[in-house]
Amino acid sequence: MKKLIPCFASILFLVPTIGSAATKYPSLPSKVLSNYEPKTSKAATPKAMVKRARQFLSGLNDDLHKQAALPFDSAEKFRWTNVPPRGPQGGVRLGDLNEKQLQQACDLLAAVLSPQGYLKARGIPLADDRLLRNGQRRPGFGAEDYWLAIFGVPSAEEPWALQFDGHHLAINLTFHGDQMSLSPSFIGTQPRGFKLGGQTVEPMLTKDEAALALFRSLSKAQQQEAIVGRKRGRIVTGAGRDGRVPQPVGIPTKGFNEKQNAALMAVIKLYVGDLPKTQAGKRMAELKAQMDSMTFGWWGPAEDDGDFSYRIQGPSLIIEYAGQDLGGDPHEHLHSMYRDPTNEYGKRIVGK
Fold first, then answer.
1. Which of 28, 62, 87, 227 gives 20 to 30 Å between its CA and that of 10?
2. CB of 245 within 8 A of CB of 284?
3. Rounded to two decimals, what is the model's pTM?
4. Does the residue 252 lie in any domain?
C-alpha cells in the first residue's frame, strides 16, 4: 500500500483550473470534468434527482436522446463493462456531448451521488486519460469513452434507473421514491492517483488502508482464520456475473468486539457512502443489523506495501477488492466490486 496523499471531499466541487488558459486536454469531456463545478442541491431528494435527470435529457437532440433514454427493462442495463469499451455501449457517449450537455451530465451525477461518489465518477475517467498514448485518441480509453444511460422515465414516485460505465467504472443506480440501490457497482482506477489543479485525486482513497486496519484489529488467532490465501486473490463477482453468490470464506464476524465492528463498518462505508447521505444512512443501518452474519476474507501479506485482496460478505452484501498485475504495479491498478445480491438493479425496492 502506497503512502496516501489526502484528498478531501470538501474541495470536490471547488476544483481549480489546471494550468493556464492554454492548457491542452485530450478531449472536451476531460476539460469539463477537470474544471466544471456541478450545481448541487441542499438535499438529495427524489425530486432534486429527477429534476437533474430531466434537465440532462431535455438538453439532448433527438438522436442523443434516443441513445440516452432506454426502457426500464432494457437488456442494456445488464451489459455494463469495466474493460475499455471498443464499440457502442448502452447510453450516450460523453465524447458525443457538447460542453453544456456535459455540464448537465455532471450536475446529474452530482445529484444522485454523494461527494464521495461523485469524486469517483469524475476522477476515474480523468485517471483513464493518463493511459492515453501521448495524450492521443486510444479507443476505449479516456474520459470521452464513458457512457451514461437512463432507464425508464425519471420520476419521484415510479421506478427508474441510471447507469454510468466505462473503463474501470460501472455505477448502477435504481430509484423508487426515496429508496435507492447501488448494486451492482464496479469501482477501479489506474493509476491510483494523479494531480489536478494542485490537488492529488485518488478515486479509491483508503479502501486498502481501512481494510488493513480491520485486519490488524484482529487477534493473531482471528487473523489466521481470516486468511484464505497467502497470495492476492481475484474478484469473482465482476462484470457478466450477475446473481453469483460465492461461498463465504474467512472469519465469521460474529463475536467481533466493538473496535473490530467499527473497523468493519468503516470499510463498508467507503462503498455504501457513494450513495447520498440519507440513502447511505439507511443502507448502513440495514448492514449494521447484519454484522453478526458476515464474513471477512483476506489474501496476501498484511503489510503497508502488501499485495493483498479482501472480501466482505453477508446476507445482502458482497464487497471485493484486489490489485491487478497489468501495468506492473498492483498498487497503481485497483479493482473493487460492491453488490447486494438481494437488490441487484433495485430488484427488492422495485418489487419485481
1. 28
2. no
3. 0.92
4. yes
